């Protein structure tokens, strides 16, 4: 299982840091690619964690995603 931390900038201009994990793969680049592909789809969404909360992030509300080598701060 691999986990990445994404800094998400919403179309409103606000941003938040979320943790996204995927089972079955250990490659961080592959997990990031899956998140991008999912959010780029017409009805795209991902389930992520923001602190201790589970959130569903819909692609139509996302302006940009940022992934850094060290990750964002949660």
Summarize the structure.
The chain is an alpha+beta fold. The protein has one helix and five strands; from the N terminus they run E-E-H-E-E-E. The protein has one domain (2-65): SH3 type barrels, CATH 2.30.30.
Characteristic key phrases:
74 residues, alpha+beta, SH3 type barrels, two-stranded antiparallel sheet, 1 helix, 18% helix, globular
Strand order of the largest sheet: 2-1-5
- The level of helicity is 10-25%
> Which fold name fills CATH's third level, the topology?
SH3 type barrels
Query: What's the level 1 CATH class?
Result: Mainly Beta
Mean pLDDT: 86
**Coarse shape:** globular
Written overview of the protein:
With 74 residues, the protein is an alpha+beta fold. It has a single domain, classed as SH3 type barrels. The chain starts with a strand and ends in an 8-residue tail after the last strand.
